[in-house]
Amino acid sequence: MITNTSDRFLYIGGSEANMIYMNYHTKTFREWWYKKLEKITEEIPTNQYMEVGTILEEAVIDLYEQLNNVKGIRSKQAIKGIARANTDYIQGDKVSDVKVTKHASEWHKKGKVPIHYKRQLIHYCYVLGLNKASIIAYQTNNNLINNPFQELDEDNLYEIEVPITSKEIEIHRQKLEYLEFCRDMNVFPE
To answer: Could you tell me if residue 169 is left (phi over 0), alpha (psi between -120 and 50 degrees) or otherwise beta?
Structure first.
């Protein structure tokens, strides 16, 4: 998994996909875009939940494959223009992102994930030319957060299908191409 690379500033990655939907005049977007224009490499901030998710990612995929009797591609990386994808898992024509979260069962029950995770999956579908996506979510608790090196329980694993339309991928492509143009012109988007 790419967390910090010397050329990260050159691309928009999946974790940044939500940024391209922001109002270009907000302080948050302008600060982010300034770093892209100035080619400033920054560390990705982490917290305990993110660190545990990283530790458990392979184990979650192992459990998913075992339960579903499948084998997929892990940690595929690709670049398409300004867009960069560093995926967790691909099986056939479906890309999946792994999330270890206190919200897994809630997402599964609702059949819906937060919009920024959907946009991350749209980003992956665009870069990789895929059209199906899901979140493979593992329900965590304080015990697992404090001790991530324990056996995972299949009852805590969920897959939430995330419908991605060709229209959503096209809108994403347009936004990325416009930002790539702006970057090449060294200007802020309007």
So the answer is: alpha
Nearest to 17 by CA among 125, 136, 158: 125
Contact predicate 124/86, CB 8 Å: no
Taking the C-alpha atoms of residue 12 and residue 122, their distance in angstroms, rounded to an integer, is 13
Domain spans of the chain? 47-177
The structure tokens listed for 47 are: 């917290």
pLDDT in tens, 16-59: 999 999 999 999 999 999 999 998 877 766 778 788 788 899 99
Over 60: is that where the pLDDT of 2 sits?
no
- Give the torsion through C-alpha atoms of 60, 56, 32, 8, to 10 deg: -90
Say what the pTM is: 0.92
User: Considering only CA atoms, which of 167, 171, 20, 169 is closest in space to residue 82?
Assistant: 20
Burial of 122 (0-12, 13-18, 19+ CB in 10 A): buried
CATH, range 47-177: 3.90.320.10
Segment 104-124, tens digit of pLDDT: 999 999 999 999 999 999 999
